[in-house]
Amino acid sequence: MQIYMMATLSLVGSVVILGLGVPVASEASQQKGQAQFIRCAACHSTRAADRPSTGPHLEGIVGRKAGAVTNFTYSERLRKGDFIWDEARIDAFLAAPQSTDPGMCLTFRGLAKAEDRAALLAYLKAPAS
Ligand code: HEC
């Protein structure tokens, strides 16, 4: 019985340790993503409830239809854009905004490092509240 209890306790212990490890790791990449978001924050919010800015809010942007924010006046290209902002599409935009989506986010010049783009994507998926 005692052995069984000890085994159970150590199992619970490992689960707790593993469980703690996961949020710490994603928190670190989320923080990197949050730092990258400085390039977007002048024009975008990550919350739908915030008042409209220069650009549309980006809450739920990963998997969202292009031009879907109703209280934002888009360019004709995005308003009629019949596509979804999935991860691959956002990554391509982040790498080379002027060649994939010219004129969309004018002052943003692109992120060359795949690592920075991945961190920013992770942050866009789950912005810190
Ligand atoms: C100088 C202002 C500005 C900056 C900086 C900026 N954006 Fe934008 N963004 C806009 C505007 C304005 C639009 C709408 C463009 C249109 O209607 O064609 C837009 C549109 C978008 C869209 C399409 C949204 C939709 O609903 O279809 C995405 C995605 C986006 N921006 C992501 C970003 C990200 C990520 C960054 C930072 C890396 C960024 N933008 C930086 C101004 C900006």
Describe the 3D structure.
InterPro entries: Cyt_c-like_dom, Cyt_c-like_dom_sf, Cyt_c_1A/1B. Pfam families: Cytochrom_C. Keywords: Electron transport, Heme, Iron, Metal-binding, Transport. This is Cytochrome c. The protein is mainly alpha-helical. It has a single domain, classed as Cytochrome c-like domain (Cytochrome Bc1 Complex, Chain D, domain 2), CATH 1.10.760.10. Helix 1 packs across helix 6 and helix 4 packs across helix 6. The chain is globular, with a radius of gyration of 20 Å. The protein starts with a helix and ends with a helix. About 15% of the residues have low confidence. Bound molecules: heme C (HEC). The site of heme C (HEC) has 24 residues, from helix 2 and helix 3.
CA-atom Rg in angstroms = 20 Å
Query: How many domains comprise the coordinates?
Result: 1
Contiguous helical run count? 6
Helix content: 40-55%
CATH homologous superfamily descriptor: Cytochrome c-like domain
pLDDT under 50 segments (min length 5)?
Answer: 6-22
Order of helices and strands: HHEHEHHH
The whole-number mean of residue pLDDT values reads: 85
Can you count the beta strands?
A: 2
Approximately what portion of the residues adopt beta-strand conformation?
Answer: under 5%
Strand order in space, largest sheet: 1-2
> What is the CATH class?
Mainly Alpha
